[in-house]
Specification:
three-stranded antiparallel beta sheet, 3 strands, flat, alpha+beta
Length: about 70
């Protein structure tokens, strides 16, 4: 689940910066992948994970899952 920002605390780009930072931190700590799941009607969450470079893993009527994997260079 993605964090929810309270009304009045929402700033354009804040959720993207926070979520992208969380992904980067997890990958830098050695996690091989980060996954997110949400309801398919949660358009804001879908847009956020896509903006952060996550790719669709599975899609069903009640849950959509995205992931991003660490690039081994």
């Amino acid at each position: 689940a993605l964090p929810i920002l309270l009304p009045g605390q929402q700033t354009p780009g804040l959720a993207k910066a926070a979520y992208a930072g969380l992904i980067q931190q997890a990958l830098s700590l050695g996690f091989l992948q980060v996954q997110a799941s949400m309801q398919p009607q949660n358009l804001a969450a879908l847009r956020l994970v896509r903006q952060c470079g996550m790719q669709l893993l599975t899609a069903g009527p009640t849950e959509v899952r995205y992931q991003i994997c660490r690039a081994d260079n």
